[in-house]
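Progress note, sequence design subtask.
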């Protein structure tokens, strides 16, 4: 039973044997008592032994995991529904009412020929889920980008914010002083725009000694990430070709 005070998340894929089952277990491991989580599949089978092994290697508990059908799930009980494959997105998005629907598309490790497919999937799910939890834990009345397309396009419409996003797509990680040097904008203006991008959930950050580094939030919906990648590819002229090295006078 889901507590009325909990934020509840449902992960979906086709078989509920690997991706969504792994996501359920990882989310439960990282989340606290304020969250509830489950998973289901459009054509459920049974847990993949390799998926369970990958979770154990990651230090994630697997007790009680079982494959479940979406027909056994009451969608109205969940605040967020996250599909992990394109098929689940197509089949399940219309079933969601007022829930926030998030589309992630992870390659199926079951059909992969790579020996580390399950380990890689577990690691990538772990990274995305950590960032998702950071967003869900934020106490803010402002809409978040992962469930508000109009807000995504609104915030991307500012030329400076767009340029900084494209820079991060190209370089991966940058600090404030690198943005200031590359855009020739003032530090307060750059910091203000970075704060807005982070507040809306578009950016993640980390602190390393004196500097705070920004990167594109890996928990974004895949269609948003695709738009950013495509824009960076077709409008490379918006991206400065060089950025200052933080170890060479960046303060």
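Output:
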């Amino acid at each position: 039973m889901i507590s009325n005070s909990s934020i509840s998340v449902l992960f979906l894929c086709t078989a509920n044997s690997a991706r969504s089952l792994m996501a359920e277990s990882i989310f439960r491991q990282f989340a606290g008592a304020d969250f509830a989580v489950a998973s289901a599949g459009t054509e459920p089978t049974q847990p993949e032994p390799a998926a369970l092994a990958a979770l154990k290697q990651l230090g994630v508990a697997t007790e009680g995991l079982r494959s479940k059908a979406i027909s056994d799930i009451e969608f109205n009980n969940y605040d967020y529904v996250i599909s992990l494959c394109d098929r689940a997105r197509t089949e399940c998005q219309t079933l969601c009412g007022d829930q926030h629907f998030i589309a992630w598309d992870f390659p199926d490790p079951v059909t992969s020929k790579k020996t580390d497919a399950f380990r890689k999937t577990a690691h990538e799910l772990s990274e995305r889920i950590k960032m998702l939890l950071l967003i869900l834990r934020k106490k803010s009345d402002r809409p978040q980008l992962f469930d508000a397309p109009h807000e995504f396009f609104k915030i991307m419409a500012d030329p400076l914010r767009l340029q900084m996003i494209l820079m991060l797509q190209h370089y991966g990680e940058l600090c404030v002083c690198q943005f200031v040097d590359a855009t020739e904008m003032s530090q307060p203006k750059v910091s203000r725009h970075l704060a807005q991008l982070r507040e809306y959930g578009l950016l993640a950050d980390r602190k390393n000694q004196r500097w705070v580094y920004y990167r594109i939030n890996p928990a974004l919906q895949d269609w948003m990430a695709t738009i950013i990648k495509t824009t960076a590819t077709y409008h490379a002229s918006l991206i400065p070709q060089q950025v200052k090295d933080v170890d060479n006078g960046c303060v």
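The first strand starts at residue 7 and ends at 13. Work on this subtask will continue into the next period as scheduled.
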